Amino acid sequence: VQLVESGGGLVQAGGSLRLSCVVSGVSGIIFRVNALAWYRQAPGKERDFVARIVGGSTTNYADSVKGRFTISKDNAKNTVYLQMNSLKSEDTAVYYCNGLSRWGQGTQVTVSS
């Protein structure tokens, strides 16, 4: 099982980014039923929960991102997304995909104020 994130970058405050995480090495049914999540880690801080999706539509979010971030998945592509809108400087971090007892390598998101 491998998780590979992409989509990070540098964006101005108020802007948007969409992160992707492709999950390989699992069947479609395994991808569909398992929980997948995004976490983030800012410099000098612990890795924190951002958002989770279970099955097709059950989601939950950290309070700090509610109303701004949306997690979704494309079962046909074994891919989970994190749409991030109204980005703030405090969203700057390395974002990690998590699921099936695996972590991705992370993708850097930097928000300039």
Topology:
Elements: E1 2-6, E2 9-12, E3 17-24, H1 28-33, E4 36-41, E5 47-54, E6 58-61, E7 69-74, E8 79-84, E9 93-99, E10 102-103, E11 107-112
Parallel strand pairs: 2-11
Antiparallel strand pairs: 1-3, 3-8, 4-5, 4-9, 5-6, 7-8, 9-10, 9-11
Structure description:
The protein has 113 residues and is mainly β. 5% of the residues lie in helices and 55% in strands. Strands 2, 4, 5, 6, 9, 10 and 11 form a seven-stranded mixed β-sheet that branches. Strands 1-3-8-7 form a four-stranded antiparallel β-sheet, with no helix packed on it. The radius of gyration is 13 Å and the shape is globular. The termini are far apart. The relative contact order is 0.33. The model has no long low-confidence stretch (mean pLDDT 96).
Give a short overview.
This protein has 113 residues and is mainly β. It has one helix at residues 28-33, and strands spanning 2-6, 9-12, 17-24, 36-41, 47-54, 58-61, 69-74, 79-84, 93-99, 102-103, 107-112. The termini are far apart.
Unreliable residue stretches: none
- Through-space gap between termini: 37 Å
Give the count of helical stretches: 1
Helical/strand content category: mainly beta
Rg calculated over all Cα atoms: 13 Å
Q: Strand fraction band?
A: over 45%
- Main beta-sheet annotation: 7 strands, mixed
Q: Classify the helix fraction into a percent range.
A: under 10%
Compute the average pLDDT. 96
Shape, per Cα inertia axes: globular
Instruction: Output the helix-strand order.
Output: EEEHEEEEEEEE
Number of strands: 11
